[in-house]
Amino acid sequence: MQMYPELKEWRVFEGRLQVLVSWVTIAAMGSYFVFYTLAPWAYDVGPAILLLMALVALVFGWPRLRANLDGESQLMIATFLGYFLLQVSVLTMHGEDLSEFDLSTRYLGAAIVLASLLMVPVRAKPFFFAVGVGGAVTGGLALYWWGLEGPGRLQSFDNPIHYGNGALALSCLSLAGLSWASRQRYRALWSALFLCGLTGGLVASFLSGTRSGWVAIPLLVPVILFAYRDRILDKKWLIPVILAAVGLLVIAMVTVDVVRERSIIAAQQVEQYFEDGANYTSVGLRLDMYKAGLAAFSENPLVGIGPSGMEGKVDAMARAGEIHQNVAHYRHLHNQYIDNMARYGLVGLLSYLALLLVPFFLFLSKARHGLSSVRAIGLAGALFVVLHGVVNLTQSMLERNIGVMMYLFVLVFVWAVLKAEEREDQAASDAPVV
């Protein structure tokens, strides 16, 4: 059957448009991961461009979106939307100023971008390449800055906490990349890149002196063992290799001056707080923040007392001498779980737990997938969520724009790439055998 010229031209245009969208998406994703710890624009420019494209795609590409929106993706998107709606509802209930709604909109934006990216075939290769380069560049610059500045906590555009934990996140993703590389052509080159990314992220994390992420490292091992237990049991020589690697990592952490000194200081400050009431130290201030947060939660356990109410509670307790007066200078409580409880009550705590657990179990289920690329990407997502969940025991990452964007768009990109790999595998299976 002869195709009308207009229809033929439209299909050519549509094909070129899809290629352009794919390249823009790859560029946005690549810049996000390469500059993950190094430049603030990485969190705004790429996601903003993708959001604009997503709004157009959802209007004109709804039928195609429905075809790609499987049950698992619907659950991921519903989790983002649920967190957005619950926060907006509670903030409205407390009569908060419009500025308090700003961070909540990021969850709505992430849901929209994820829905549109399910229509874009962004594969594992550019994703893992960006992750490896990001970790390697971060580590190289960390060593360069350390050589220039000497001893002290390293940081980039923000504070050492976001820098160190961001670098550790790149290490986790690069570690998953090593698994992916084992099944690729030129696997030696890919493995070298991911080893540089893994090492670079660890080096930057250690030199930042950020303790919160280090606690997560032992908890990552069971996730890796769960994902690859079949390979480990088949190749028993891997067991001593893994144990040796963990041992070397522990030794490295102990021998790095910044790590050793800050770990000792943390233990001393905890002891001083409970024995002498020393609440002026870094750890002491955090413990006073937790005290204030739990006091706020007890006033309204269901929906909390809102951000403004939390500020008032902290000020009142500081004036009364119940907590150190410097606590009033902080914008959040340095514990996301307690922060959500104080601001949004049990509703806020449960919604945050859903924001952690739903992606974690979705990724963990994919970490046992039969396709090696999907398994590696699932492992990457699961490791990242574990890291974020542990870090937020001593941080409130979701109370700042950078923290929200660091978490949400890693989930968005990892899930979109994972689903693209699944679709490609399914298409290959359904193709007729010639």
Task: Please provide a brief summary of the model.
The chain has 434 residues and is mainly α.
Give a description of the structure.
Residues 202-353 form the O-antigen ligase-related domain. InterPro entries: O-antigen_ligase-rel_domated, WaaL-like. Keywords: Ligase, Membrane, Transmembrane, Transmembrane helix. It comes from Marinobacter daepoensis. The structure is a single chain. The protein has one domain (12-262, 334-423). Helices cover 77% and strands 0% of the residues. It has helices spanning 5-34, 45-60, 62-68, 71-93, 104-117, 124-149, 160-181, 187-208, 211-214, 217-234, 238-255, 257-276, 282-299, 306-319, 336-366, 372-391, 401-430. The mean pLDDT is 82.
What keyword list fits this structure?
mainly alpha; 434 residues
State the end-to-end CA separation: 24 Å
Low-confidence stretches: none
**Which word captures the global form?**
globular
Radius of gyration: 23 Å
* Chain oligomer state: single chain
- How many β strands by DSSP? 0
Which structural class do the helices and strands define?
mainly alpha
SSE blueprint and pairings:
Layout: H1 5-34, H2 45-60, H3 62-68, H4 71-93, H5 104-117, H6 124-149, H7 160-181, H8 187-208, H9 211-214, H10 217-234, H11 238-255, H12 257-276, H13 282-299, H14 306-319, H15 336-366, H16 372-391, H17 401-430
Helix pairs in contact: 1-2, 1-6, 2-5, 4-5, 4-15, 5-17, 6-7, 6-8, 7-8, 7-16, 10-16, 12-13, 13-14, 13-15, 15-16, 16-17
